[in-house]
Automatic annotation (TrEMBL):
It holds the Pfam family ATP-synt_B. One of its GO terms (molecular function) is proton transmembrane transporter activity. Residues 6-77 form a coiled coil. The keyword Membrane applies. Belongs to the ATPase B chain family. This is ATPase. One of its GO terms (cellular component) is endomembrane system. The keyword Ion transport applies. One of its GO terms (biological process) is proton motive force-driven ATP synthesis. It comes from Hyphomonas atlantica. Its main location: membrane. It is found in: Endomembrane system. Keywords: ATP synthesis, CF(0), Coiled coil, Hydrogen ion transport, Ion transport, Membrane, Transmembrane, Transmembrane helix, Transport.
Amino acid sequence: EAQNLREQAAETLALAERRQQDADKEAEAMIAQAKEDAKRIMEEARKDIAERLARREAQAEARIARAEAEATEQVRRAAADAATEAARRLLAEDTAVDQFESAAREIEKALG
């Protein structure tokens, strides 16, 4: 009977060792899978961040372009307004000179 108990103990030990080996293999597989998952998640996060940064950069560049266009338009309008005002003043001055010359001619005629 002792022999039988030894055999049962050996079988139980062998079974326990196999189960331990299986558990170790399963744990190693789980760790490997977790590492792969973590690597994939990190790559996806990096890609997502890069895409977001690219979108924000494009949006910022678009805002800058709009601001530049608006500033250019404002400068163009200001230049056009200044040119119009200068032309108006020149015309007013020319009219005053013409009126003065006309009055001078009238005076010469009257005196002369």
